[in-house]
């Protein structure tokens, strides 16, 4: 079942089409990557999903019914890329204030704060002002403030900004845990390696249009170039490598990157070396990264051949 369904959303500013007829679904409990270059329309999409903007056309469905910003906003947690914290307020006071804004009682909010501050080793920060914290520490405060009310939909815009590897891994693990518990997550970032590691599905938008969407691994397969990396137990001579089954793209010692020729299969590659009595010690398909697909689709260029 989908938690969020976006149907033909449009948002125009004068003559600029910020979002132009975009549709997609986000399954409940999934981690959904929202990707696109600067100015693609991502921020406008997020603002419509959070009820900040109303679409000019189209409709949103939240939890199986038409989206009602007034009532559904308390089921959404939104962590923007820019800091949304009051610099002069103390950390504990601010977390309490933001939790109460999301509908928690003072007692329930304090219990949540105690739990999360202990888990993130932040109890000693409670009486510090936000302006006294590093960028990474502020990011942890902002993350906790976003999830304290147990939202059904969690929107994270560059959540790892300013975090060191240890704290980034801590936040990443919490994202995985929240997803397993049923929280649906929209993850917006420019770091494509994070997308491949974290997201189940993605949508790529550019100039207000949807370019592609689907499962991460399926998209990589859809753009495959029939490239394979093969490791051989002995060094073959040129005659042993000569075949119409594949073309050699590159070589490093006994490891070759080859491109399968049209109408041939992986069995043709393997059987070629078996007939030559050359042991195969490694064999894998090389799929393009999401970063390579992203660049090619946005710039409308061919994918580079991976050596």
TrEMBL record:
SMART domains: AAA. It comes from the Bacteria. It holds the Pfam family DrrA1-3_C. Keywords: ATP-binding, Nodulation, Nucleotide-binding, Transport. The keyword Glycoprotein does not apply. The keyword Nucleotide-binding applies. Residues 4-232 form the ABC transporter domain. One of its GO terms (molecular function) is ATP binding. Belongs to the ABC transporter superfamily. This is ABC transporter ATP-binding protein. The lineage of its organism: Bacteria, Pseudomonadati, Bacteroidota, Chitinophagia, Chitinophagales.
């Amino acid at each position: 079942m989908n938690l969020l369904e976006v149907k033909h959303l449009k948002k125009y500013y004068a003559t600029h089409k910020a979002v132009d007829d975009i549709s997609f679904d986000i399954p409940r409990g999934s981690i959904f990557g929202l990707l696109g270059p600067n100015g693609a329309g991502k921020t406008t999409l997020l603002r419509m999903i959070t009820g900040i903007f109303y679409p000019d056309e189209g409709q949103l469905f939240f939890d199986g019914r038409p989206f009602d910003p007034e009532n559904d906003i308390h089921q959404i947690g939104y962590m923007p890329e820019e800091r949304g914290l009051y610099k002069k307020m103390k950390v504990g006071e601010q977390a309490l204030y933001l939790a109460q804004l999301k509908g928690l009682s003072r007692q329930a909010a304090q219990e949540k704060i105690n739990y999360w501050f202990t888990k993130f080793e932040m109890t000693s920060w409670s009486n510090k002002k936000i302006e006294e914290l590093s960028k990474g520490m502020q990011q942890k405060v902002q993350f906790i403030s976003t999830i304290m009310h147990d939202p059904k939909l969690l929107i994270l815009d560059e959540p790892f900004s300013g975090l060191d590897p240890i704290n980034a891994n801590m936040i990443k693990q919490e994202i995985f845990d929240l997803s397993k518990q049923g929280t649906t997550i929209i993850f917006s970032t420019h770091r494509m390696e994070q997308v491949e590691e974290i997201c189940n599905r993605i949508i790529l938008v550019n100039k207000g249009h949807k370019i592609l969407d689907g499962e991460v691994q399926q998209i990589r397969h859809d753009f495959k170039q029939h490239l394979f990396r093969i490791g051989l137990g002995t060094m073959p001579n040129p005659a042993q490598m000569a075949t119409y089954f594949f073309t050699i793209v590159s070589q490093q010692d006994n490891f070759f990157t080859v491109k399968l020729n049209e109408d041939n299969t992986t069995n043709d590659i393997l059987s070629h070396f078996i007939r030559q009595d050359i042991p195969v010690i490694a064999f894998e398909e090389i799929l393009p990264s999401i970063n390579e697909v992203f660049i090619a689709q946005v710039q409308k260029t061919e994918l580079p051949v991976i050596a």
